[in-house]
């Protein structure tokens, strides 16, 4: 059976907890992404930051992205899966948490990310349609 490690894209770039939101935003622009995992000095996943987080939780609240760090913005425990998690379970987790990107860990280390694009490349049209419907349901 297909698992997260089979469909993820490898080489996810982390932003360190101590880096500013401005640095995170620059890295997002350079990589043309809207999401970065937050890693600690232990090189383990400590959170997730999105471009939307930076805008809504810092800039729109009068914060200074040149001073606020990624670690300060991170809240709660990040949702992730192991590389050997079956794709059906990956899909359920993403739908349940209504997330579009899911970090993949191997031995507590970040090895990749499953995104909507990865799902679209590897799942049936019916599965992708159900996923999009589930995460875009009313209430956003």
UniProtKB/TrEMBL annotation:
**Keywords assigned by UniProt?**
CBS domain
Q: What species is this protein from?
A: Actinocrinis puniceicyclus
PANTHER family cross-referenced by the UniProt entry: CBS DOMAIN-CONTAINING PROTEIN, CBS DOMAIN-CONTAINING PROTEIN CBSX3, MITOCHONDRIAL
What Gene3D superfamilies does this protein map onto? CBS-domain
Q: Which domain of life is it from?
A: Bacteria
Domain (CBS) ranges: 8-65, 68-133
Q: Which PROSITE patterns match?
A: CBS (PS51371)
User: Matching InterPro entries, A to Z?
Assistant: CBS_dom, CBS_dom_sf, Diverse_CBS-Domain
- What is this protein's name? CBS domain-containing protein
Signal sequence segment: none
Transmembrane stretches in the record are: none
């Amino acid at each position: 059976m297909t698992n997260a490690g089979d469909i993820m894209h490898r080489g996810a770039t982390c932003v360190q907890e101590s880096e500013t939101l401005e640095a995170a935003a620059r890295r997002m622009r350079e990589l043309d992404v809207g999401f970065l995992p937050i890693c600690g000095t232990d090189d383990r996943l400590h959170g997730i930051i999105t471009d939307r987080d930076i805008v809504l939780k810092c800039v729109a609240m009068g914060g200074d992205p040149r001073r606020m760090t990624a670690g300060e913005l991170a809240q709660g425990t990040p949702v992730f899966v192991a590389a050997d998690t079956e794709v059906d379970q990956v899909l359920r987790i993403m739908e349940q948490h209504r997330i579009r990107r899911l970090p993949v860990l191997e031995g507590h280390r970040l090895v990749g990310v499953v995104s909507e694009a990865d799902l679209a490349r590897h799942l049936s049209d019916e599965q992708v349609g159900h996923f999009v419907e589930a995460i875009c349901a009313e209430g956003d």
